[in-house]
């Protein structure tokens, strides 16, 4: 069996921890979209590791971690992570035996980061609140057919021609729109050649490796980044990232067709957070400011990539139901319910009010989504409890079990994993998605 992990909210659901746990059963772990805008914080043996680009499965020796074609790849960040993992003795063999990068992945270059920054600075209104890692501009170049792919870094003549094409329009934009210095091709070309040389041992035909893995029935874990509501097609457009974060992205982003056995596990927190701007129906920053502050403090809700405070709100079942549908989620991993321990009450949003009507689906137009008012089911909170006495979900306080049951019944999807802390041991696995039925 193979497993796709997707964020079911606006990212930061705790996917890194679930990937780390499930990696024990997988042989291949694949990043298929996004880039180093992701930030997975893992705590293993009490040691905190933050990974932005390399799949979190790297912390398990003997696994093959693949960065597939759908990713936008920043070589500088990649080498930083390789060196930091090497320093903490994470590799049991040579790093290039554990991590491979697709020839077809698109490269994030300094001008992508620059444009991301200049655009965000310029946008008085309609700021996206990006991570400023150059993700959007790199995907723009990919779709505009002027991107530089990893394989190009190994072809000097082709690279020079492609770089010249890529920077032609950018220099006009930089000079005349942003009043910024133009890009010089010569140093960029030299930098790219040097990166290609260094990257050579890591570059592979990732699609072909995965096709073989499927053929040999080796379990594959697809590690999604960001969350469903940040998907460029299905998210809260335009306040989204530039890739397909939904489970379908695992196919186009890795070069596999549908039809292989797979389960889709949606990761959700017991409440909701969002970083960056854009609609967030259950946000409580202004309505229940004290509760929002408490959740942010107890849950350490600050971005792993940018350190920005995350906006906080109650769990939005309307948005989650939507995520279940667009991803084909077969099981849920419920994270951070412990952050709500000891709260007097908790709320679940079960519908929205929009212009005098009750709606049960996520409106497609961002202006409508900005106007909706959440309708809540209010449930009693659960007391703080002694974790050492809990062996499984059945031992949890009854109010927490009710909370979980209400979520499962609304979504018609079972909770297959529950996490109550950052460590591997603070997890209850209800059923293992890698097991064949
Ligand atoms: P970009 O991906 O840097 O272009 O940012 C676009 C939007 O996606 C912004 O709202 C970011 O805050 C959000 N975003 C990107 N990556 C993540 C992530 O890993 N977690 C949460 N939000 C993210």
* Tally of separate domains: 3
- The rounded distance between the terminal residues' Cα atoms is 9 Å
Helix content: 25-40%
Shape: globular
Bound molecules: inosinic acid
Trace the largest sheet across and list its strands: 9-7-5-2-10-1-11-15-19-20
How many helical stretches?
A: 13
Instruction: Count all strands and give the number.
Output: 20
What is the CATH H-level superfamily of the largest domain?
Answer: Adenylosuccinate Synthetase, subunit A, domain 3
Q: Percent of residues in beta strands?
A: 15-25%
Q: Nearest-angstrom radius of gyration?
A: 22 Å
Mean pLDDT: 94
Question: What name does CATH use for the topology of the largest domain?
Answer: Adenylosuccinate Synthetase, Chain A, domain 3
